[in-house]
What we know:
mainly beta; five-stranded mixed beta sheet
Amino acid sequence: MDINAVEGWSTYLPATNLSQSEVVIALIDTGIDYNHPDLKNKVWLNPGEATGIDSNGNGIDDGCEDNIDGDNNGYLNDCHGASTIVPRTNPDGSLNADAGDPLDNAAGHGTNMAGVIIAEGNNASATYHGGIVGVAGLEPNIKIATCQSAKFEADVFPLIPGTSVPAAREQAIRECLWYFYNLKQSGINIAVINASGGMSKHINLYGLMYPLVADAYQLNTPEMYLLADLIEAADIPIVSASGNNSWSIDQVIDERAYFPASFDNKNIIAVAASNNQGNLWSGSSYGRWSVDLLAPGENILSTAPTYPIFSAESADFVVTHGSSQATAYVSGTIAILKANQSTQGLDAFSIKRLLMSSGKKLTDGLSKTVSGALVRMADSNGKGALTCNNQLFTRRQAPKANSMIALPGETVDIEVQSFNCADASGVPHITVTVSPSGDTFELYDDGLGDDLTSGDGIYSGSWVVPYGEFEYILSTGYDSVIESDDQLVITAAIVEDNTGNTDRTGKWWPSIYRSGFYGSNYRYATVNDPEKLFVWSPTVNQAGHYTAYARWPQGPNFATNATYRVHHQDETDLSEIVTEVQVDQTQDGNQWMALGTYWFDAGTHAIQITNINADGTVVADAIQLVPVP
């Protein structure tokens, strides 16, 4: 399963001004072995430092070894990039030469990424057998610059001291982003930033442990949020790995969100890894709402640092796996787009739209990425980034769930992305249908009201949850990824199952024997003494009248006199009131049954069920509170 690079190269047409404005890929990583034979001719040479003269014939431009900060950016001789893992200045205030030298270290990750992105093709000679070809390796006017931010660190996991892993501190990555931002502002054609690295609050170590990551390596800081906005305003795409934790980075569990992929800026393209069979690679993180697309990430042959950076037996080339490699494929593709005659003028969000709408659908990606697609450089039937024609992409992007709880009176904000290749689809509006009422409302891309930006392909609107129903289904129309209608299920109530926010005394057995239960199972207690009590603890955010409902599956041996106890308040003095309600659980199963309407103050409350005096098995399934207008 590949990205159709060969077809892409045959379609690619260099932009007419490319020789005057070479495309530069910015790599934030462990550095690059810029002496590697497959990379040395592809590494960027800083025009602010280079003189074009090699007076001593050692193969190094005089401006790269003259101990002068030629471009006055605070990095000495930064001919190929910079390093932020060392201080920029020495103790005496002079510039540190190491800060201007991003030569890869023992981690070797950056050299590996560089090979996927831009390893030179057609470079075999009498002294070199030739190696691999990177995605952008055949275009001589595409170069790669690097900022070295990562190395082996032994303090990443505070609870596992001494464990050494490749990692980058937040400050180092932040300084790299500033470095490339300033290059862009100075006129260097920074086409894309490759951010294969990243971090979440916890890491999945082989499914055996999930250690906490030290604060110094966390990237979701206020400074990084502001810098992400600045890079977006500078119109630089950032391609970010989803991570190798084998879990969703959608922020249901904040500790699993992976940054910078989890930033929601329009210029950030989050990438998961696919395997050779076209499925999600087993180690890749993913996210229906957070990860944009897939690229190859299993058994990837690429460059490794040469000897003596790596040992002789490990040097030159290596086969690796990961979402980092997938990210590199996407960065190389973007570089080709920025060098191609018909696509070089695309802005960052247009590139993102193009990649999402032009890829090859993978079944395993439909529910695990936004686009459900593998990036393709070129393809048939109008697909492929370089050959995209009339490829419509339409999918809801907010709320970031297919089901949610929203009480009557609350406002639900809705966004649908609608693209046609690199452009917004241009449809006048998107109609949302509400069931069971049959009402409709419209989403617009006009920059007015709920919509932030006109013409960007993001259609926005809002809906206020009405009173009267337990559940509503909102359909935004055709979802081009799953090729069926989108459905958002909104429960207009506070619902508690028998799992979370509950407590119990005595034995309440879990079961799925009787059908019609809510959630994953129900629990039951026999009639034997002593008392067995099951407690739900719903939280009410706004004081008011609520109707309490309970449900249970159908069962002929259930109690005809099961007793619920509803703890509520007096509306006047807020004193505690406990109301007992008996129900016949042999009847009215598989549906919500009202226990009465009560006043609840804001806070956490208790609804109980007991087996005392019951004439059969008592069932604890689920309860809900529905606001009353």
